[in-house]
């Protein structure tokens, strides 16, 4: 591999930081944060390690009339979810697009599936974790930090 795709790494990092900021503005519970981390793992795995089985499963739906009908029903249901939760869907769409861009760039550079999985996962989790830590430290600083800030502003 000649060089890392820094722009794609930065875009993925910022996409997950933006999603983390969205979760912070909603005052999400810890369970939601764990679900966001699980989403990052599932997305990285589906784009790298499980790409061929996922592709074969999706192509299987286009081989019969029943498959076409099922795909139409799933698409219509997804359209209702998209229209209903457009703000949340846009975050997921941006995260998916950034992860796909990074995956394509890693694929061009002949990076293996396991290293691509680790790269996408680490960058995604760093974005979510950094946004959580930043807000926790800025909004709820420890008491000794509050005292130091209070003395500094005197």
Please give the largest β-sheet. Answer: none
Task: Write down how many β-strands occur, each being a DSSP E stretch of 2 or more residues.
Answer: 0
Count of helical segments? 7
Give me the oligomer status: single chain
Radius of gyration: 20 Å
Following the backbone from N to C, one meets helices and strands in this order, namely HHHHHHH
Bulk shape:
flat
Beta-strand content: under 5%
What's the helical proportion of residues?
over 70%
End-to-end C-alpha gap: 54 Å
Which structural class matches the secondary elements?
mainly alpha
Low-confidence stretches: none
The pLDDT mean sits at 87
Summarize this structure briefly.
The protein has 154 residues and is mainly α. The protein has helices at residues 6-25, 30-47, 51-60, 65-84, 86-108, 113-139, 143-152.
Summarize the structure in words.
The chain is mostly helical. Helices cover 83% and strands 0% of the residues. The protein has 7 helices and no strands. It has helices spanning 6-25, 30-47, 51-60, 65-84, 86-108, 113-139, 143-152. The longest helix is centred in the last third of the chain and has 27 residues, at 113-139. It is flat and about 65 Å long. The N and C termini lie far apart (54 Å).
């Amino acid at each position: 591999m000649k060089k890392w795709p820094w722009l794609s790494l930065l875009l993925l990092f910022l996409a997950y930081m933006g999603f983390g900021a969205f979760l912070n503005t909603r005052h999400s519970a810890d369970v939601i944060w764990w679900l966001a981390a699980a989403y990052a793992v599932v997305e990285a795995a589906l784009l790298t390690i499980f790409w061929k089985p996922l592709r074969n499963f999706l192509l299987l739906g286009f081989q019969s009339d029943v498959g076409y009908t099922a795909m139409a029903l799933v698409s219509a249901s997804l359209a209702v979810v998209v229209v209903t939760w457009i703000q949340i869907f846009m975050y997921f769409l941006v995260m998916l697009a950034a992860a796909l861009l990074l995956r394509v760039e890693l694929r061009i550079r002949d990076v293996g599936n396991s290293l691509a999985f680790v790269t996408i996962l680490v960058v995604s989790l760093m974005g979510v974790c950094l946004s959580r830590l930043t807000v926790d430290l800025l909004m709820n600083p420890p008491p000794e930090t509050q005292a130091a800030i209070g003395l500094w502003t005197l």
